[in-house]
Amino acid sequence: MPLLEVDRVEVYYGDFKAVSGVSFSLASGQVEALIGANGAGKTTLLRTITGLLRPRAGRIRFDGEDVTGLPAEALACRGISMVPEGRMLFPSLTVEENLQMGTLTRRVGPWKLDAVYDIFPALKDLRQRNATQLSGGQQQMVAIGRALLSNPRLLICDELSLGLAPVVVEEIYRTFERIRGAELAIVLVEQDVARALATSDQLTCLLEGQVTLQGESREITLPEVTAAYFGE
Ligand code: ATP
Predict the structure, then answer these.
(1) Are 102 and 152 in contact (CB under 8 A)?
(2) 21 phi and psi, to 5 degrees?
(3) Which is the closest atom of ligand 1 to the Cα of 40?
(4) What angle do CA 30, 232, 58 make, to 5 degrees?
(5) Domains of the chain, earliest start first
(6) Higher confidence at residue 193 or residue 86?
(7) Ligand 1 mean position to 39 CA, how many Å?
(8) Backbone torsion region of residue 52, taken as left when φ is above 0, otherwise alpha when ψ lies between -120 and 50, otherwise beta
(9) How far is the C-alpha of 207 from the C-alpha of 158, rounded, in Å?
């Protein structure tokens, strides 16, 4: 049984349909890359899976349970956690206080503060610093660490590399390989199409809210993705 099933989901803003009949399913331990041009509906779909938006049609099932329309808090407690676009740290809190926000779901699992400091050693020295005093890359590490501390079963990452220097992006994705585990499924939005293909097991390309390409990443070629990306 898949951990996550997105089944013909449609999401609107008023009369505007931003996501149109999108389906995919994802097993534990697998990574789904979601790609598409600006405005394709990627963030809308992620926010729907995390319960921040309600679909007007279609179903979302998590671990066999129909969770369509459940609020974000209820989904977080079931193990769906998001690293949002723009990191969304609490500016008045320290690094460690920001990290600890992740423990509010009280889920138990392998991720504790020490485990986060183990994969991001730089954060340990900075733990009493205010979050706003960090570089963009360090802030992204805090956002990832905070999500991991909720011990998620599904981790949702919206554009991890946005605004970061290439060397920092490399570092984040190297750590990503240590985070992937048999018990964790990941949905990843990534603008770098080659990286999205290389990092994922399966891929969905959206264009204006609709799926233009879907399949196993190792069977999809870069020219195919490029054509689907631009709707050629
Ligand atoms: P980007 O790469 O720019 O983040 P995206 O693929 O994540 O793009 P979305 O942000 O999901 O796309 O937006 C999908 C469509 O919905 C776009 O046409 C966008 O203008 C529209 N949209 C997004 N948020 C809202 C909103 N709050 N109200 C109305 N329309 C919105």
Answers:
(1) no
(2) 65, 45
(3) 6
(4) 45
(5) 4-90+152-230 (3.40.50.300)
(6) 193
(7) 5
(8) alpha
(9) 17
Give how far Cα 52 sits from Cα of 14, 43, 55, 74, 104, Å: 15, 11, 10, 11, 18
The CA distance from 164 to 79, in Å, is 28
**pTM confidence score:** 0.93
**Angle at CA 187, nearest 5°, toward 183 and 193?**
130
Residue 84: phi and psi, rounded to 5, are -75, 160
The answer, yes or no, to whether any atom of ligand 1 lies below 6 A from the CB of 91, is no
Q: Is 223 exposed, middle or buried (0-12, 13-18, 19+ CB in 10 A)?
A: exposed
pLDDT in tens, 45-78: 999 999 999 999 999 999 999 999 999 999 999 9
- Predicted confidence (pLDDT) per residue in 132-147, tens digit: 889 989 999 999 999 9
Residue 20 CB–ligand 1 contact under 6 Å: no
Amino acid letter, residue 47? R
Determine which residue's CA is closest to atom 29 belonging to ligand 1.
13
